[in-house]
Amino acid sequence: MDLTDKKLLVLLQEDSKKTTKELSSKLNLSVTAVYERIKKLEREGIISKYVTILDKNKIDKGFVVFCHIKLIKHSKDLISEFEKEVVSLNEVLECFHVSGDYDYILKICVKDMEEYREFMVTKLTTLQHIGSTHSTFMIGEVKNSTSFVLN
Amino acid sequence: MDLTDKKLLVLLQEDSKKTTKELSSKLNLSVTAVYERIKKLEREGIISKYVTILDKNKIDKGFVVFCHIKLIKHSKDLISEFEKEVVSLNEVLECFHVSGDYDYILKICVKDMEEYREFMVTKLTTLQHIGSTHSTFMIGEVKNSTSFVLN
DNA sequence: TTAAGAACAGAAAAATATTCTACAAAATAA
DNA sequence: TTATTTTGTAGAATATTTTTCTGTTCTTAA
């Protein structure tokens, strides 16, 4: 990965719909050269996918909650069982296993508090092996980017 | 937004490179009908952007830290000053203003612990108005999606 | 019932992606 | 050093897709 690849990735992270023509003029390369570089980055798995981002407020998913979870026990079996169940929950967009005071951080997106309550009662708290949960509510989105700055 | 729009959005969230032809066959519509629906969703702002997702491990950004921050004071001026500074930090991909025990949750992506230390010392702790920070390290990624399930 | 607007399909046109060929620079081996 | 391979590139040709255009159907409201 040279400097040109990095510039290319920065541009593609912002907007995957940029045409190779646009990219070629910004990078001072031919269309083919840009095309080949992109294909190489895809083959190497550096580019993993192209996705569409929706405005969560316009699809009734603007109520965002971070839920910190502790498990009761931490045997390998119980952990993977818990994780399998979490992955299947539509409201949970992200789930990270973390070090520290609790075991997992979940990011949950729903319509409103009522829907969150419903989610907690009927889904989250019925998960196996949960010790405790602690919900933190988002009151503002300061930055929410999918683009890495490469250096 | 009808059921067809929702199906369309589910498909596009997964892979924005799907052609209108592919989509049209999955939705039992003509190419033009799909095209017009997508343009409408873009105009309405429901589709906000198309992005490229990179594999963070392959670009040396696989060390992920959640940092919980408390401010000293909470006047409007100090908050917006702090937020402006945070947004400008390349290592901070996400920053949410939250309710509860602390004021902000930051998601920080760097290469390794050494780079994180450097970031803490030279950038994060030099921010104005910070009361305290608490770092939680990601030890596993269970789920990390950008796709909402629509209902 | 009729008029207006929205959604749709198919064809045509325009733009883009992809492949192919060839060349030059850089890296590698003899 | 020279010969050889590899890599990156450019331009042209081709394939595919996007976008526009035209006309039709369907829905809705007057």
TrEMBL record, chains A, B:
Entry GO CC: cytosol
Claim: Transcription is one of the keywords in the record: yes
InterPro entries: ArsR-like_HTH, AsnC-type_HTH_dom, Dimeric_a/b-barrel, Tscrpt_reg_AsnC-like, Tscrpt_reg_AsnC/Lrp_C, Tscrpt_reg_HTH_AsnC-type_CS, WH-like_DNA-bd_sf, WH_DNA-bd_sf
SUPFAM superfamilies linked to this entry: Dimeric alpha+beta barrel, Winged helix' DNA-binding domain
Matching CDD domains: HTH_ARSR
Molecular function, one GO term: sequence-specific DNA binding
Residue ranges constituting the HTH asnC-type domain according to the UniProt record: 1-64
GO biological process terms on file: regulation of DNA-templated transcription; response to amino acid
SMART domains: HTH_ASNC (SM00344)
Keywords: DNA-binding, Transcription, Transcription regulation
Gene3D superfamilies, per database record: 3.30.70.920, Winged helix-like DNA-binding domain superfamily/Winged helix DNA-binding domain
Protein name from the UniProt record: Transcriptional regulator, AsnC family
